[in-house]
Specification:
Helices cover 44% and strands 14% of the residues. The protein has four helices and four strands. The strands form two sheets. Strands 1-4 form a two-stranded antiparallel sheet. α2 packs across α4 and α3 crosses α4. The radius of gyration is 14 Å and the shape is globular. The termini are close together. The relative contact order is 0.17. The N terminus is likely disordered.
């Protein structure tokens, strides 16, 4: 794979480089690590709520939203908004890029 989380470049190496380059801060790396905890390895699906991430990290939801925005802008994640799809409620989810 040719992405931050591929087998040829583990995500932690990419995160450490982004931190050392000043692209993200340590706290952003811990947020994405928390998010990865919820990633289903079989499907790749990752959809923890902001509330759950905030609870685990003992941070406010607004702080986690800022972290997610920073990670998105840095190219580490994509955010896919949920909603009603085929009469079924779909949750928001994250894709690691």
């Amino acid at each position: 794979m040719n992405n931050f989380f591929g087998t040829d470049r583990p995500y932690h190496v990419a995160l450490m480089k982004a931190i050392s380059d000043g692209i993200i801060k340590d706290e952003h790396a811990t947020t994405i690590s928390t998010m990865l905890y919820f990633r289903d390895s079989a499907t790749g699906r990752c959809n923890p709520s902001v509330r759950k991430i905030a609870e685990i990290k003992s941070r406010s939801e607004s702080t986690i939203k800022r972290h997610i925005k920073t990670l998105k802008n840095a190219g580490f994640i994509k955010y896919i908004k949920g909603g009603i799809i085929d009469k079924k409620h779909e949750t928001n989810r994250y894709v690691f890029t």
